[in-house]
Amino acid sequence: MPKQVNGPKRDPAIQNELNDSFKEEVKAFLSDEDKLHLLDDLTKVNPVTTTTVLKCLQARYTVDVFYTYAGCSLVAVNPFQPICRLYLPELMKEYHTALRPQELKPHIFAMAEQTYRNVESQIEPINQSIIVSGESGAGKTWTSRCLMKFYATVAASSTSPKGSETVERIEKRVLDSNPVMEAFGNACTLRNNNSSRFGKYIQLQLNRSQHLTSASIQTFLLEKTRVAYQAPRERNFHIFYQVCARLINLGISKVH
Ligand SMILES: Nc1ncnc2c1ncn2[C@@H]1O[C@H](COP(=O)(O)OP(=O)(O)OP(=O)(O)O)[C@@H](O)[C@H]1O
C-alpha cells in the first residue's frame, strides 16, 4: 500500500530552529504589553496563536474595551456589568451617520449599520443575516437586544409619524414577547441564571425606503429534556416556578 505523504519532511534541526524562532516571535509580540490593547482587529495580531489572541483580548478587557474586530467578524467580550456609555442613543446615531462606520471603534452598532447599508445598496445578497454565536452566558441574547434596539431607532421613518409609530409597535411587540418566551424557554444553569435553552431566528422586514415594517421570531431546538431532568444545581424552565409562586400567593397548596 502506498504510504500517505503529509508534505515534505523537515530536517529535525531546521524544525527546532523554526520552533525557537516562532517562540521568539510570540515572546517579542507579548513583550509590548502596553500596546496590546490598541489592536482593534485580531488580524493585526502576529503571530496568531491562542495565547497572543487571548492576551490581546484580555489587554483590551482590562481597559474596558469589550469589542474587537476579527476581519469582518466582531468579537464581543461579556463585561458582566452594565456599561451604559456603550449603548447610548447618541452613539447609535454616531455609527448611523458615520461616513465609514467600520473606521470607528469596533462596536455591535458598526456591524448593525454595515448590514443595514448592505441592504440599502440593493446589491446581492439583499437579504442580510447576522449570526450571533458563542457559549452559554457569552452575551448572545444581550447582543440580539442591542441589534433590535439599533434597528428600531435607525429604521424608524423620520418623515412619517405613522412610520415611527409602526416601528415602536414592532419593537414593543418583539421586546414584550421576550418575558413570555423566556418563561417557557429559559432556565437557571450553572453558567447563566437566565440561560436560553432554545435557538432563535429573528427576522426583520424593511420596505423599499429602509423602514421597519414587520418582524417575526422562530424558535427551534428547545431543550425539552430539562422538563424531566436537570443537572445538579440547575433548574427547570422558569414557568414552573412562576406557576408555583402564583399558586402559593393564592393559598393553593395542592394541584392535580
Ligand atoms: N454587553 C453586555 N453588557 C452588560 N452585560 C452583559 C453584556 N452581554 C451580556 N451581559 C450579561 O451577561 C449575562 C449573560 O448574557 P446572555 O443571557 O445574553 O448570554 P447568552 O449567550 O444568551 O447565554 P445562553 O446561551 O445561556 O442563553 C446577562 O446577565 C447579561 O446581562
From TrEMBL:
Myosin motor domain location: 37-256
GO molecular function, one term: ATP binding
One GO CC term, this protein: membrane
SMART domains for the chain: MYSc (SM00242)
PROSITE patterns: MYOSIN_MOTOR
InterPro entries the record matches: Kinesin_motor_dom_sf, Myosin_head_motor_dom-like, P-loop_NTPase
Annotated binding of ATP, by residue: G134, E135, S136, G137, A138, G139, K140, T141
Pfam families for this protein: Myosin_head
GO biological process, one term: actin filament organization
Keywords for this protein: Actin-binding, ATP-binding, Motor protein, Myosin, Nucleotide-binding
Similarity remark: Belongs to the TRAFAC class myosin-kinesin ATPase superfamily. Myosin family.
Protein name: Myosin XIX
